[in-house]
Amino acid sequence: MSTSPADPASYYSFLRDLLGVIAYGELSAFERLSSDARYSPTLHDRAVLGRLAVIEFRHYELVSAKLDAMDQDVEAAMLPFQPSVDHFHERTRPADWYESLMKAYVIDTVSADFYRAISRYVDAGTRALVEQVQADEGATAVLRDRLRTALADDPRLASRLALWARRLLGEALTQAQRVSFEHSFVGGLIGADEERSEELVRGMMAEVAANHSRRMTELGLTG
Fold first, then answer.
1. Is residue 1 a part of any domain in this protein?
2. Residue 131 maps to which CATH number?
3. Which of 71, 79, 126, 160 is the most buried (most CB within 10 A)?
4. pTM greater than the 0.85 cutoff
5. Which InterPro entries has this protein been placed in (predicted)?
6. How far is Cα 45 from Cα 33, in angstroms, rounded to an integer?
């Protein structure tokens, strides 16, 4: 699905905001993974998170390049989203290595689902960028496989990580809805009225939650 905005200037403004929040999300993911590596039980695991952090920074650079091409200041585009994203990460600070792994996995996959859903309503070039940034299956597979190994090694982790994943999903969906409504992402991108925008966002949230539940089931957890 592509968009044909009635007001190109407004569309451009909403697109800047969308790329701004994605850019800050990627930069924050880089910082979070780099920091969380300190929980790693082995040097191998520390290197795994380090590689994932590098991938997130490369994604940040891709989105920054797009903003530059739009003649938009990258820092200015990110700043409106810094307080809410930082607050989200403060509220969901992991207690140990296993919670760090689960947080990285949940936030990586939920964010990818959410932004891919929104990208249905943007121009083809931006949609391709979002797909490129959010479709790193290799990184996702590394996190999933490491979680499976941890759960197999210590089945007692299952109930704790299931609760943690459920909390992360709730916080992530609340954050996504708030950002969507405050910045009118869907309405601004497709020119929909408030009622239609809210309907579309609720549909996106249901889709994201269903995908998360499926992934938790695949891990042997109740999502």
1. no
2. 1.20.1260.10
3. 126
4. yes
5. Ferritin-like (IPR012347), Ferritin-like_SF (IPR009078), Ferritin_actino (IPR059125)
6. 11
Q: Count how many residues are written for the chain.
A: 223
Residue 223 lies in a domain: no
Encoded tokens for 168: 């992360």
Task: Return the structure tokens found at 47.
Answer: 């290197």
Distance from C-alpha of 178 to C-alpha of 183, rounded to nearest angstrom:
8
pLDDT in tens, 69-94: 999 999 999 999 999 899 999 999 99
Local structure of residue 70 (DSSP, 8 states): T
The tokens of 36 are what? 């969380």
Residues 6+ apart with CB under 8 A from 61: none
Q: Which of 216, 208, 218, 111 is nearest to 164 (CA)?
A: 216
Q: Which residue has the tokens 């939650």?
A: 209
